[in-house]
Amino acid sequence: xxxxxxxxxxxxxxxxxxxxxxxxxxxxxxxxxxxxxxxxxxxxxxxxxxxxxxxxxxxxxxxxxxxxxxxxxxxxxxxxxxxxxxxxxxxxxxxxxxxxxxxxxxxxxxxxxxxxxxxxxxxxxxxxxxxxxxxxxxxxxxxxxxxxxxxxxxxxxxxxxxxxxxxxxxxxxxxxxxxxxxxxxxxxxxxxxxxxxxxxxxxxxxxxxxxxxxxxxxxxxxxxxxxxxxxxxxxxxxxxxxxxxxxxxxxxxxxxxxxxxxxxxxxxxxxxxxxxxxxxxxxxxxxxxxxxxxxxxxxxxxxxxxxxxxxxxxxxxxxxxxxxxxxxxxxxxxxxxxxxxxxxxxxxxxxxxxxxxxxxxxxxxxxxxxxxxxxxxxxxxxxxxxxxxxxxxxxxxxxxxxxxxxxxxxxxxxxxx
Length: 417
What we know:
By secondary structure, the protein is mainly alpha-helical.
């Protein structure tokens, strides 16, 4: 198998100069790279898999990319006077893309093929590059967007799509790894699955970024202080309408945030048993990054997010969801969102002296958050399709016995009975 400019095969391992090694029959040691589909042998011609170290580097580079995006979001939220495309925060964001693109393209070139899980990354590079050029042209022609318009700009949505394909690359790579140690339902340490766990965590953060204006960890709209502020700002007639709109926007925000926070864990449970610490990483990182967007204007929300992540981590250890146990997955999904948001509501109520929402509203929000995530399990773990029983095999029909004696001679001669 030709895996590079001067591929070298030793035993069952194919190595590419300057690139990762992959074994013929499974992952080995720290490389974590191998398998029948990505391994060696001159007769197979398969492209070597990305090693564990390679997937970790991809994760770090996409973290650079997403970090630059959140840094740019912070600048837009805290410095509304921005009127140019050429800013230090855009430089961090786009340099993260350049570094990721260079690594992915080099990984493909050195293997003379695309490693498993990295095909969509190439599509993401193209989408991101075209959208980035379009974004610069858009800003130069129409100026800098403000508020929600900046999140819904067509070129920004193109950047989101391209970035999403890039940051989920380590997940796809480990998902396709045939290493028996990563088999469905096996208990795997966080260090071994860190590329996949970090990848889904960044995917949740990126999705939450687009809908930041709905995210409860971005802004507190449920406290009694927020309600009193609305009451002081508007007259009695306006307050009724504004407080109703606050609930109409706030409740869907909790449902959206439930998908962003817990969807990544649910996706992990579709392939593996989520390792210890995965809930802390997925939920804790998002809680911190949502508050970072506003310069930690309300740091208590980040603290409540971290406390909720600890509670969910304990529930994850208790229920033990795995691909082979849908009932455990459903139990976790029904309980985790109400537990997390219960910590959120309780913390705000204790700190601010009460909630601005009635018990029916925040209580119903807790129930609907659990039901919404439970509904996703019905889609990802559908009932088994029944296999029809095979039709019974009927006994073969025997041929009629041949006619013999005088009758046969008569038939042959006359052609009639």
